[in-house]
Write a structure and sequence with these properties.
7% strand, mainly alpha, 3-stranded antiparallel sheet, elongated, 131 residues, single chain, 3 strands
Length: 131
Amino acid sequence: MSRAFLWVSALGLASSACVAAGSLMPWLEDASFRVGGLDRDGKVTLALAAALAVFFILAAVLSARWPFLVALALSLAAAVVCLAAVVDILATPGLLFTSVGPGLLLACAGALSAVVSSAVGVSARRSASVQ
């Protein structure tokens, strides 16, 4: 197994865990209410996070680039869903005193980190085995 594939897969796995955790946390907060991620698009990001984890594990086990390509597509989809939710919350006129919740911010950060780690995995070279 390549060391680069292991490190990038570990970072990708941590990123997918952040997306999953963020999907379960509040995405919208106000003084009087909270909206959880599963009440909005958190179900989609949770499913994408599970699929991301599978492909990052496959990349580490197989020491191959193709799982990183699939992970790149999945992480881009998760990033688009998260960023669209942020824009939706900030652009809604009736939500003046509402803020983006910590779960959505964590899911966005995890999705963007997964994009970076999968892109690095695609460009990583196969090197000598870990000793």
